[in-house]
Design goal:
Oligomer: single chain
Number of helices: 6
Order of helices and strands: HHEHEEEEHHEHEEEE
Number of strands: 10
Length: 238
């Protein structure tokens, strides 16, 4: 059925007797992003390109390090029907297609929940009326009432296209974004201005650039190596 169907089932059609993830009481999200909106932002035109890999990830940093975080997290994950295991101080858990990882880093607890997306999933998400959101992903993460935290949502796509198409897609992404609130830190050498006839200017075959949206603190990292293009979008959600 694909990841998208599983995602929708996980949130909309829970099995009898399963408790939903608790509301994140006391920590109202400041920003949220759904997968469809995110994909349209970073990959607005997918025709003529082959999706090689894609992933959605929600990361949380909890401070100070909660006492007994392992046992507390295991109980929460079990409630959410994740299969958890502890190895070398790293707590891992799975509930396909979700993967959860948590570990202490000094006096900080790092938590992540992620889902890998296939090319078919990406196509379905474009057509989904109710795609998975960063807020929904955050509901799987164990919470600790005595700690504060920050969060960020990341969506990444690696696609492959013929050189002419890769040039068009990367140029389109930058031009569309910068018509709004996004700004480019620095254009790479060889990035040409628009042609006098209104067409796209030339794009180098190998480059890396960063776009920033200062109001939200979001960033997009765009990297190209010939036919291969990687785009990673990161949004601070809390």
């Amino acid at each position: 059925m694909g990841v998208l169907v599983t995602l929708l089932a996980a949130f909309a059609c829970r099995r009898r007797g399963e408790e939903p993830p608790p509301r994140d009481a006391g920590f109202a999200p400041t920003r949220s992003m759904d997968l469809r909106t995110g994909l349209i932002l970073i990959f607005p035109e997918w025709r003529g390109a082959q999706v090689v890999a894609a992933e959605s990830r929600l990361s949380r940093t909890v401070t100070p390090l909660p006492s007994g975080w392992v046992s507390s997290s295991e109980k929460t994950l079990q409630t959410h029907q994740f299969a958890a295991s502890l190895d070398g101080g790293v707590l891992s858990a799975t509930r396909p297609p979700f993967v959860f990882v948590s570990h202490a880093q000094g006096e900080v607890l790092v938590q992540e929940v992620s889902v890998v997306l296939t090319a078919d999933d990406v196509t379905r998400i474009y057509q989904s009326p109710a795609p998975l959101s960063s807020e929904q992903m955050a509901l799987w993460l164990p919470t600790f009432s005595s700690s504060g935290y920050s969060e960020r949502f990341a969506l990444s796509v690696h696609y492959r296209a013929p050189p002419t198409r890769a040039s068009f897609l990367t140029r389109q992404l930058v031009d569309l974004s910068t018509r709004g609130l996004w700004q480019v830190k620095s254009l790479p050498e060889g990035w040409q201005p628009p042609r006098l006839d209104g067409g796209f200017g030339a794009v180098p075959e190998r480059f890396e650039l960063i776009l920033e949206e200062k109001d939200s603190g979001a960033t997009m990292n765009v990297k190209r190596d010939g036919e291969d293009v990687w785009v990673r979008y990161v949004l601070p959600t809390r």
